[in-house]
Amino acid sequence: MLRITLVAALLGGAAAQVGSHQSMAGYDSASDVGPHAMIDLDMEEFEKQVGYKTTAGFAEALRIYEFGGNGTCVNANDNGAGCAAGAAYGNSRKSDSIRTLKGFATKDYSTAKLRGTDGGKYGEKLPPIYACYWNDWAWADSFVTNTYTNVKDNGRAELMKKGANYQAVWMYVLHELEDAIGDCYAGDITANDATPTGGAPHAWDEGWAFYAGSLVAATAADSAMEGTGLQKEGTLIWELSEKRGKDFGTLDTTGPSKANVGLVTDFKSGRDKIIAADCAGAEPVIDDIIKKMTIPLIQGTIKYAWKADPANAGDCSADAGKTALTASDDCVKSWTEGWAFAAALLPQLDQCDPEVASVVRHNLDAGANEPMKCGFATVKTAIESCYTKLGVTCADIGAFQSSGVVYAGAEACTAIPAKPALATCSANFPATAAPIPVAGCEAPASDDATAPALALGAAAA
Questions:
Q1: 138-173 pLDDT tens trace
Q2: pLDDT tens per residue, range 185-229
């Protein structure tokens, strides 16, 4: 569990008493975010129930997702947060309510405040991009709660748990950072006791709490999946970056993934700028954080695209031409994992190049007629052609490997390639009708705005 400490921070040349705070994977919060970090306990319970791959397991997982975990209250207000008898006790509790994964997934990003159309400083960059790509302001919730009747249950399990983590929680981390910027410009930095625990530093701390969780160790080294530390990597996005860092040879010499090491630095930098009221200086830090948080999404998409390609010696080598209902269990698992990662990345790829996004989508979508129709090389090169616009390098992503041996065709690029010819591949995609854009997306993000119909599990044409 996270460690409670008391420290003083030197910021802007003056000593500022930070107060009671948490140390999580190398980051020291300026405010108390211990209860926030415990959302990872919900994720742990959710993933366990999903892992049973049964009707009862899925139902219980969705109950935890919607209402919270940690059992139920026997009596009213047993949890001190106002629960009713028989209602969820909750892991991540507020004074009068419970934080839930569904709450993260259904955050209303469509408001004028969060879209930045009210003239304020709370506008968020990514949610409109994701919402308008999916044509759904609750895109993460739609992904998690879909019944996926055209996918085997082991595939549904992968889609649910990765959708909750890598779409809902992933975006909510960034929401807290954007909220901190707005609070900073509003002057909400210090509390009544003059400590830097006002709304802005607290929101920034919440971002890290939701990124790392309560199950990580206090230090980054002890939170690394590899190395000689405690190996307490938790179960949220920090853990994902650790897993993909191992898979792609992008671990830092200190133990954690290079992306995680960079994020610790970025989050500390942003925290200190917020406390020093350098609101403008903190804004570009979020851009750097987005790039590093996107690295494991890219790595995950490439990894499972390789494993799902029947032409490779992966999990789908005997499943060409099969659907996610008729393919082998191993193939369905890798295919749906690839789709879960791709779905978390697609809106950003679409901003880079709609044709690239379309090719990745139709090759990995678990609702397609077969996995990886155009082949791994095409998908990998298409993604790599967007690295510059995504703000990453070939070295940032690395090479998909096992025990230091790189899989055939999965080498790291040495230079960012040009977009491959995709017309032949795209010609095989099913035609779909453009939907009526949801409010706030009247001008679709791209011509590929039809993505949600196939992407969210509808039967392929």
A1: 999 999 999 999 999 999 999 999 999 999 999 999
A2: 999 998 777 777 899 999 999 999 999 999 999 999 999 999 888
Exposed / middle / buried, residue 317 (Cβ in 10 Å: 0-12, 13-18, 19+): middle
> Cα separation of 337 and 366, whole Å?
9
State the DSSP string of 8-48.
EEEETTEEEEEEEEEEETTEE-SS--HHHHTHHHHHHHHHH
- Encoded amino acid at 438, one letter: V
For the stretch 24-49, pLDDT in tens is 999 999 999 999 999 999 999 999 99
Report d(CA 272, CA 281) in Å as an integer.
10
Amino acid at 328: S
Give the mean model confidence (pLDDT) for residues 68-84: 97
Q: Residue 14: CB partners within 8 Å, gap ≥ 6?
A: none
- Contact yes or no for 221/229 (Cβ under 8 A): yes
Distance of CA 3 to the CA centre of its chain: 25
Which string of b and e fits 192-209 if b means at least 16 CB within 10 Å?
A: eeebbbbbbbbbbbbbbb
Burial class from Cβ neighbours inside 10 Å (0-12, 13-18, 19+) for residue 190 reads middle
- Taking alpha carbons only, the member of 279, 350, 423 closest to residue 134 is 350
